[in-house]
Fold this protein.
Amino acid sequence: MTKKTSQDIRKQETDLMEEASRLDEELAIMEKHSEQMVSTEEDIMEDMRKRDREHKDAHLHSVPKSRKHVR
């Protein structure tokens, strides 16, 4: 078992403060551009839904559409 020195504790505190500062800066940027982020997120979600539907249509139906009612 190793003992923590005061220098180790100060380094950990400094690292935590730097990380908290970085997070605060990132949150400020996100708040500043919140409308653009919401718009982009909606576009991404719409694209994901479209791709998911296309994948399901192409791979999960037992009979292809063009042959469904042809005998």
Summary: Residues 22-57 form one domain.
